[in-house]
Amino acid sequence: MARRSTKSNGRASAWTTLEREIVGCRACPRLVRWREEISCVKRRAHAEKDYWGLPVPSFGPQDARILLLGLAPGAHGANRTGRPFTGDGAGPFLYGALHRAGLATGPESVSRDDGLELRGARIANAVRCVPPGNKPSPSESLRCAPFLDRELELLGELRVILCLGEISWRAAHGALARRTDGPALRRTRFGHGAVAKIGALHVLGSYHPSQLNTRTGRLTAAMFDAVIARAVALARA
Fold first, then answer.
1. Which of 7, 11, 92, 224 is most deeply buried (CB count within 10 A of its CB)?
2. Cα gap 129→29, rounded to integer Å
């Protein structure tokens, strides 16, 4: 029992250290300038609110079996609230689906202190700072990659990575290739519902729940519910 408690305490400490390093990161000058500029200029609807304006750490339990991996924080969403997929148009779509699947205690995420909790799932972004035009450079993505690598090491119960968009799919590929032989992932093209098994992990693809995709019908609630149900089933297998 003492040995297990010591291991658990060590893992919790590693998570605390990782989150502190993420929030304090200033490795990409272009992204630092952009996130801070947005936090000062703000959007009119949020003019009276304080912006987070820092890299955004992941959200969810440390023993999650499912990791949802997005691209980067939204300019006036997570860059404002400090929580992935919170405060912008993609949030209600994503958290609503997680709630229907029993993976979230509520259907909406509005702030870091709203009491919402995830169950069995964690949410992260491949890049932790908001990039101009939602397009991080290859070098910026590479500098951020070690954060995802360390999270995958700490997620000891992880079974499924649900990649929200092709860039996230490539980020998962890179992370897994660095820790294991990943040819199967390289052979599998990204697509909604695409799946590759890499070692003990399943990598599952989904269109990103951006408003562009959801308003045009490229990604419907039924489609997203189905891919999350697939992730849950794979995590339990």
1. 224
2. 11
The tens digit of pLDDT for each residue in 170-220 reads: 999 999 988 875 555 566 899 999 999 988 899 999 999 999 999 999 999
Read off the amino acid at residue 221.
A
Q: In Å, what is the CA distance from 53 to each residue of 128, 142, 178?
A: 11, 21, 30
162 touches 206 (CB < 8 A): yes
Q: For residues 149 and 14, is the Cβ–Cβ distance under 8 A?
A: no
Paired with 198 in beta bridges are: 201
Write the pLDDT tens digit of every residue in 131-150: 999 999 999 999 999 999 99
Please give the domain boundaries of the chain with CATH numbers for all domains: 2-236 (3.40.470.10)
Q: What is the pTM assigned to this prediction? A: 0.93
Closest to 81 (Cα-Cα) out of 114, 127, 32, 40: 114
Provide the 8-state DSSP code for 45. G
